[in-house]
């Protein structure tokens, strides 16, 4: 039997498994072909190109990985036995860089144990040499039909608002597309301004809940009583000022997705109530004696280090594992510098349409300056800089000097509330430690905190009392 369906059996693909040509109507699929036998590489490459595939060849696993960083294929077709890095090692590295990208192994040394080992690790298929032409094409068609992004044209609308050419971002988007198909909770981490809400919205749009509400709330922007009321709702008379019943965001998002931004700033008492709601799939509004069933997918985000917050007792471990079924980590903008010119051109077009239609873009020197900047405020800061440049320019092409001025203004601008609060806390802690010469008991008393809380504050700001002691 060439085509096995058992989970434990090798998946050796066969031309009789499916009809040929299923992908050809959708464009020219890109295949990365890897083999250290150069003559066979050329021969097989010509065979694939003759059928209309776009083929990129690599003579080793290392070369294939370099190509993968630059030009992501839809399928990897690789020899199993190669020097330095064999096909299975290449597969494991491909899955690390591009989870879900299908890999088919070819070998002249095929055996059932090899096939079982390969398929158990997640390899899509296993073909023995010499490869039958029809069997090869059928295997490729089957793999392409199941590859990430192997959907109808125009099905990328879910990610239309995310502008990128970064391989790292493309990898994250591939993961987001796959996880959107399930209903598991997703935790998006990354620095402030990196686009966490945009990605959360994209996941919702790519999911089966897309026609239902996407509701977002910043858990760090509201005081605890108001945040509890906003999330769970309240009954009439639940507290002073509750003159009528209020439906919470869990109910507003019913059937859809609820995005909990800055979940790391949620008070511990509310974390307990949130955990109970997720476990029981029902909520009880404030002042009500009746529970309400909910059907909501939770997507959360934070810029905080939740592992550290758990160690310090600021975040519940059980809630963390409930929310963090899948973690998507967005990189800072400085780590995707290739996206800066692309984003800047897109943003300047949008801003010009709203304010000054005569503005056409940035000069080459201005784009170079933008691409070379550190962007501590990430994409949000880039948006502000572009808006400032469009507002102040009097020429169709924004000059380098105006970009430099806008960047300087951003550096001297007001920090966010969270950044300002963190800076104040650190400055205050240093001051009381100086006053008390590193005596934590006295410092905690001045701060109005117990010793345990005070030590947590010191740890949060990477401060130690010892340097403030006289002996130091």
TrEMBL record:
Residue stretches spanning the membrane: none
Keyword Lyase: no
Residues modified as 4-aspartylphosphate: 79
GO terms assigned for molecular function: ATP binding; DNA binding
Keyword list, A-Z: ATP-binding, DNA-binding, Nucleotide-binding, Phosphoprotein, Transcription, Transcription regulation, Two-component regulatory system
GO biological process: phosphorelay signal transduction system; regulation of DNA-templated transcription
Location of the Response regulatory domain: 30-144
Start and end residues of each Sigma-54 factor interaction domain: 162-391
Protein name: Two component, sigma54 specific, transcriptional regulator, Fis family
